[in-house]
Amino acid sequence: MRLEYEAINAAAFLFEASRGNELRAFEQREIAEHGLANSDLEDVTKELMRWARDDQSNSDTRGRAYWALGKKCDSSLLLFFIESLRLELPRDLNATYQIMIALDNLGEPVFSKARKGYSFSEEELYRDDAEKYLAMKD
């Protein structure tokens, strides 16, 4: 299976549906238009992981791939996300943030408890959170 860049959002919607979340008509159309309705979730996961780890992928592509993988809420991806956080932290804060959200969705204490909520625009705060989280994992 080869997942096209334009299908990354549809993959995220597919994961949402697989977890029992009700999809809007737009999301259902996206899945159908990209031919993912009957796709094997593991094949889709592997393709997104390929996009995320491809050094030829740009920041937006990697970030979207991590975002979509995070929608799976799959604890078997924990080590992948931790390794990816180590890789992305020094090079791409967009991808870093998406990985942190995915880890948070898995119940990992990646964001400081001292803060109420978090936002993509708080780059220095979540960089600090990511460094502390990774130090805890060493």
Short synopsis of the structure:
The chain has 138 residues and is mainly alpha-helical. It has helices at residues 8-18, 25-33, 41-53, 59-70, 78-88, 93-105, 123-137.
Account of the 3D structure:
With 138 residues, this protein is mainly alpha-helical. It has one domain (5-137). The chain is built from seven helices and no strands.
Largest sheet: none
Per DSSP E runs of 2 or more residues, the count of β-strands stands at 0
Helix content: 55-70%
| Class derived from helix and strand content | mainly alpha
Distance between the termini: 35 Å
Tally the helices: what do you get? 7
**Integer count of domains:** 1
- Segments where pLDDT lies below 50 for 5+ residues? none
Rg (CA only): 15 Å
Strand content: under 5%
Kindly list the characteristics that best describe this protein:
138 residues, 61% helix
Question: Secondary-structure map with pairings?
Answer:
Elements: H1 8-18, H2 25-33, H3 41-53, H4 59-70, H5 78-88, H6 93-105, H7 123-137
